[in-house]
Amino acid sequence: MKKKITLIGAGNIGGTLAHLSLIKKLGDVVLIDVMKGMPQGKALDLSQSSAVEGFPCKVEGTNDFSQMKNSDVVIITAGIPRQPGMSRDDLLETNGKIIKKIGLDIKKYCPKAFVICITNPLDAMVFVLQKYSKLSAAKCVGMAGVLDSSRLKFFLSKELNVSINDIQTFVLGGHGDDMVPMVNHTTIGGIPLLDFIKKRKIPMTKINKILDRTRMGGGEIVKLLQRGSAFYAPASSAIQMAEAYLLDQKKLLPCAAYLNGQYGLKNMYMGVPVIIGSKGVEEIIEVPLSTAEKKMLKTSVKSVQSLVSAVNKILN
Ligand code: TXD
Fold this sequence. Notes:
Elements: E1 4-8, H1 12-23, E2 28-32, H2 38-53, E3 59-62, E4 73-76, H3 92-109, E5 114-117, H4 122-133, E6 140-142, H5 145-160, E7 167-168, E8 171-172, E9 180-181, E10 187-188, E11 191-192, H6 193-200, H7 204-215, H8 217-225, H9 232-246, E12 251-260, E13 266-277, E14 280-284, H10 291-315
Helix pairs in contact: 1-2, 1-9, 3-4, 3-10, 4-10, 5-7
Bound molecules: 1,4,5,6-tetrahydronicotinamide adenine dinucleotide (TXD).
Residues 8-14, 33-35, 77-79, 81-82, 91, 95, 98, 118-120, 122, 143-144, 147, 175, 228-231, 234 line the site of 1,4,5,6-tetrahydronicotinamide adenine dinucleotide.
């Protein structure tokens, strides 16, 4: 039977998610947005592309949230994105209220779905989503780490002049400017990054610049676009997570997952490496951290925790 994928928020990322889902033949797509006409218009446009692309899946656009009923996968981008000069945290109140309502809808219409939150500030929003949807922790995740790692991979591949596909890396912590890129766990075709750059005589200062550019990767695009934020790479990243679930791929991906003791943290969402398969988050992988990484992670944890307590106050 064909799977049903609901995309809540039909803006830049939502539209791209729909296009990718259809081209990859992942299932029938429902695009939901509060804006009248827009999801319907995008769905019609996407449907017409099936004549060329030849996908067998249907796509519908609607303003009716009950249409998410019995979805297998839900991906949420509803809310407002950053404008130049705004931090992700400036979105807290508006997006918090939106995500709370969507959480309650998910509880009502598709409590068994695998749900991926993309809306910022990510780690706080996925916490709110899980709280109100009552989804199991395994079925409720946030997308940020795949994107942040993709940015790091891209910058490294350019600097090192190697294929992006040969770079293995991940980013730990919250999706903020204090995320923790895992240099010690980065390999180039199996060779540790630090050995690789030593051999090539690439100074560590260059790598540090790349790490900073990764941390600020979202802001760099916001500034260039002048309206809205990145959407192609975020959509690809979330589709990789959805695909891992739908096809039971057991992929190891950095995602915002609910922590219950892992990394010494409890009752919070944060970016960690997880295995995604047909049960959702099947395992959280813990890796040893250096003293410096532990310190950086602590800072990132503090930012996430203060956002969560701020949003809890707003919503209660
Ligand atoms: O790594 C990550 N997690 C991210 C997150 C990377 C990039 C962008 N990230 C965040 O995704 C960004 O900060 C935003 O919070 C979301 C969505 O970004 P997008 O670029 O798609 O924003 P758009 O184009 O403004 O689309 C948002 C849509 C828009 O069509 C609104 O009408 C709709 O959300 N919207 C709603 N839909 C449903 N229900 C409600 N309540 C609602 N409110 C607004």
